[in-house]
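Supplementary Methods. Inverse-folding protocol.

Structures were first reduced to a discrete structure-token string of length 556. This string, shown here, constituted the complete conditioning input.
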């Protein structure tokens, strides 16, 4: 194949250019490190690629993928576990200009298959289990005509990754993609509605890399432990070494704390992403065992609000100058804001525990945030009278370079989520909150989780905070039972791990007394206890209040 001369980097907006830059500036620093077993003494063994090696490997794969028909614009299902191959493949696809389609396997086989069918991809790159799935359910893969197996190919057709990989290396002429060109389709988990494919352009990825670096002060040479695979993809672009944790990424709430702590200590990890569920499990273990993590200077938590108590617990392992940042955002817009643990614990904790909501900080540079009046219908055009005054609770809307433009072939969802404003647009987060006089966002819960009881509207995060103050409550959930507009507010309670559930009647009276003492919860008269809440599959932190509402209605 004749190679086209590569255009100057300044004319290209392609996230893979960051990797090539890092391969030149820090070629021998480790880019990706993966656990690969243990020795006879039980010590963890690792394999890795340096930035130079990752750049070369992705070049070799890009050339082979291009020859195999996985070329610019080709939607390509990627079903590969976090590994060296996963990183090399993602950057190879970006270099080619192909469009990786990424679906969270934790959402369940049925929902995952529907997402894959909806993407109408033309190529599939996956581990053997992925190809077994497509042979058992061929109807969902009718559009796919190129099959590549990562590992051993069994009874199906197509090529293996080893056959695709070019044995001859020379710098691959990267696709000259532009800011508005589609780079990937990332599916939401569907934790608060149907899973939707979100259009990511190269410009959105580029804005995210720049803003994440600036917001958190990340510098090349740092070492990251990304416990959520998609966040790991930013590491090579940021010049950070990604340490792939020894865990099931679909079950962060069940992670082995010792393995997380082992990885941090073994590699001198400086940065970690952790969902609130993982933060709680590892923090609880660390506090109970007096563990300290002196190299860790930054923890970024997202996926759901991390409570002040959860943050304080994990902070017992950190040095005084380390920070836990609670990030706010969504698949469609990330990041929007962040807030450091020092301010959470010293400035806003008492207000959050009184029911003011969870402060998630000021909008990051380049992001505009407006709070608009609550409505469930589409809003076609922006008008200034949509915006509410500071202090009023409404829907959070955002605008900026890292905000995605829409969903893959879902015009109705686009209409519900986007508000046109001249040449730009606002994205409706589907979250409720308010802005204070310091331009800080206070998160109050999902819009479709609010409970409307006559003339009073109740919001999940403020109401639940009142009950979470009780020492025996691990978490609570506000749900509405009955017809819309005339719902009966009910609080579901999950007790602390290890709590035997003794004297529930007495506990119920104590919780009702807490409710009566606050004007935001004084109308709540029903408390229900549930052993374990249903939670989202991605971060194990968002409570499935829709399922709890159905359970509560049956219970009552």
């Amino acid at each position: 194949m004749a190679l086209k001369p590569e255009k100057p980097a300044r004319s290209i907006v392609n996230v893979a250019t960051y990797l090539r830059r890092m391969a030149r500036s820090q070629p021998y620093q480790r880019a990706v490190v993966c656990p690969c077993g243990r020795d006879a003494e039980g010590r963890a063994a690792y394999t890795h690629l340096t930035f130079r090696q990752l750049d070369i490997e992705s070049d070799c794969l890009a050339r082979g993928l291009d020859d195999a028909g996985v070329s610019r614009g080709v939607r390509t299902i990627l079903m590969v576990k976090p590994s060296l191959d996963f990183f090399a493949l993602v950057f190879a696809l970006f270099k080619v200009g192909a469009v990786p389609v990424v679906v969270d396997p934790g959402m369940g086989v049925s929902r995952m298959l529907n997402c894959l069918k909806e993407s109408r991809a033309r190529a599939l790159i996956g581990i053997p289990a992925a190809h077994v799935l497509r042979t058992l359910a061929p109807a969902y893969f009718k559009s796919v005509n190129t099959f590549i197996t990562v590992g051993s190919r069994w009874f199906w057709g197509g090529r293996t990754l080893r056959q695709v990989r070019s044995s001859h290396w020379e710098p691959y002429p990267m696709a000259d993609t532009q800011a508005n060109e589609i780079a990937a389709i990332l599916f939401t988990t569907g934790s608060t509605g149907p899973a939707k494919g979100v259009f990511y352009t190269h410009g959105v990825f580029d804005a995210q890399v720049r803003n994440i670096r600036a917001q958190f002060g990340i510098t090349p040479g740092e070492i990251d432990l990304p416990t959520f695979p998609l966040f790991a993809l930013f590491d090579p672009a940021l010049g950070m070494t990604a340490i792939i944790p020894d865990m099931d990424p679909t079950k962060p709430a069940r992670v082995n704390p010792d393995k997380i702590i082992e990885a941090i200590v073994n590699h001198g990890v400086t940065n970690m992403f952790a969902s609130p569920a993982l933060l709680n499990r590892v923090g609880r273990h660390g506090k109970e065992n007096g563990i300290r993590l002196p190299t860790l200077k930054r923890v970024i938590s997202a996926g759901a609000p991390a409570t002040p108590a959860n943050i304080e617990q994990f902070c017992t392992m950190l040095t005084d100058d380390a920070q836990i940042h609670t990030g706010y955002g969504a698949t469609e817009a990330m990041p929007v804001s962040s807030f450091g643990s020092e301010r959470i614990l010293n400035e806003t904790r008492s207000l959050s525990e009184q029911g003011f909501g969870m402060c998630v900080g000021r909008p990051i540079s380049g992001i505009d945030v407006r709070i608009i009046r609550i409505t469930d219908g589409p809003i076609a055009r922006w008008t200034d009278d949509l915006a509410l005054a500071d202090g009023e609770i409404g829907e959070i809307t955002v605008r900026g370079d890292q905000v995605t433009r829409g969903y893959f072939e879902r015009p109705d969802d686009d209409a519900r989520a986007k508000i046109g404003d001249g040449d730009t647009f606002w994205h409706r987060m589907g979250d409720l909150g308010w802005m204070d006089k310091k331009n800080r966002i206070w998160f109050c819960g999902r819009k479709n989780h609010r409970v409307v009881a006559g003339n009073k509207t109740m919001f999940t995060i403020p109401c639940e905070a009142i009950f979470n103050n009780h020492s025996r409550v691990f978490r609570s959930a506000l749900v509405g039972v009955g017809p819309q507009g005339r719902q009966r507010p009910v609080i579901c309670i999950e007790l602390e791990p290890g709590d035997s559930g003794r004297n529930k009647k007495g506990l119920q009276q104590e919780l009702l007394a807490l409710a009566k003492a606050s004007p935001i919860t004084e109308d709540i008269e029903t408390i229900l206890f549930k052993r374990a809440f249903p939670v989202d599959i991605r971060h194990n932190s968002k409570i499935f209040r829709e399922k709890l509402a159905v359970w509560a209605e049956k219970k009552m």
